[in-house]
Amino acid sequence: MKNHVLVFATSSLLLFANACAPSSPQTPTDSAPATPVALTPETTPQKPAPEVPQTETQPAPTPPQATPKTNAPRPKPLTETTPIVEPVVAEESSEKVAKPDHAAWNDLLKKYVSTDGKVNYKGFKQDMPALEAYLNELTSHPIQSDWSRTEKMAYWINAYNAFTIKLILDNYPLKSIIALDNGKTWDVKRVQLGDKTYSLNGIENDILRPQYKDARIHFAVNCAAKSCPPLLNRAWTGDNLSKYLDQQAKAFINNSKYNKISADAVQISKIFEWYAADFGDIIAYLNKYSNVKINPSATVTYIEYDWALNE
After folding, report:
1. Cis omega (within 30 of 0) on the bond before 77?
2. CA distances from 217 to 150, 196, 278 (A)
3. Residue 221 φ then ψ, to 5°
4. Is the pLDDT of residue 263 over 50?
5. Which helix H or strand E contains 300, and what residues bound it?
6. Which terminus of the chain has fewer CB atoms gathered within 10 Å of its CB, N or C?
7. Nearest-angstrom CA–CA distance, 227 and 59
């Protein structure tokens, strides 16, 4: 009996010790508290971006607005890379710019230029105020886009001739125009029209010739030299342009002072050589106006230019 009691007591003691002993570690379950693990990029908390205070002195950023750059250079006009210059055209406005009145210029030409184109510069110089008034008329009435082709051509021709007369008078007495500006006076920009300034070469070679492509222009603009086609003693207008261009071409080509024409040989002005591209087949062109029929095989030579003043 004693032995049974001892065994029972021993067993009870062992059971009690096992119950009181700490249990071995268990694998975590959904209900068990999670143990710390290494943070991954998905779980790493991000530092919040600082909030910008919405105040009057620091407004919230807004999308950029498309506004023009005030310091951006303007594109270079076509005229800086090619010989072509855009004609003077006033900006669109509610007020229509009137056409210039060429009557004063017409009166001056009739008064101081003979029918054969000789210019009385001494007399012209006495009427400088009237000439300057006409130049101001051209300056303040630049070409408008709604003008006719003939009106625009007449404007450019009158401007070229009137500003050439002014150039001579400013330097008169003068033996030759080539004495001015080392022979390059045609390249000097002194012709003010609207808000632009042109040279005589600019008017003739960058505007009249390439834009209107009419070789008769060479018989209309006058360079103040004896060998130049005579200055018309009338102002050019849109209405008389075509008539006078033909008249001047015919008169110049058939004038033996400038050209000597026969059926088999022609001695002609240097103008026909300098501007050969404008005239094309020179024999064919001359035959349009010549009183003498020129053979296609006729020899062609050029007469030296006389740059003495056309007075």
Report:
1. no
2. 12, 22, 10
3. -80, 140
4. yes
5. strand 299-303
6. N
7. 76
Return the higher-pLDDT residue of 272 and 32: 272
Helix (H) or strand (E) run with residue 299 in it: strand 299-303
Q: Which two tokens stand for residue 38?
A: 């290494």
Q: Where are the beta strands (DSSP E) in 172-298?
A: 191-193, 196-198, 260-261, 265-269
Distance of CA 203 to the CA centre of its chain: 14
The rounded Cα 95 to chain-centroid distance in angstroms is: 24
Alpha-helical (H) ranges within the chain are 2-20, 103-112, 121-126, 128-140, 149-170, 200-201, 241-253, 271-274, 276-279, 282-287
Dihedrals φ, ψ of 260, to 5°?
-120, 115
Q: CB–CB of 87/211 below 8 Å?
A: yes
8 A C-beta contact, residue 166 and residue 130 = no
Nearest to residue 107, comparing CAs of 64, 86, 137, 87? 137
> Three-state DSSP class for 153?
helix
Hey, what amino acid is at 124?
F
Residues composing the chain:
311
Q: CB neighbours of 76 closer than 8 A, spacing ≥ 6?
A: none
pLDDT-derived band at 88, boundaries 50, 70, 90 = low
Per-residue confidence band for 95, with pLDDT thresholds at 50, 70 and 90? low
pLDDT one-digit tens code per residue, 58-81: 444 444 443 333 333 333 333 333
State phi, psi for 117 to the nearest 5 degrees.
90, 5
> In the predicted model, is pLDDT for residue 9 greater than 80?
no
CA nearest neighbour of 185 among 223, 130, 222, 128: 223
Beta bridge partners of 67: none
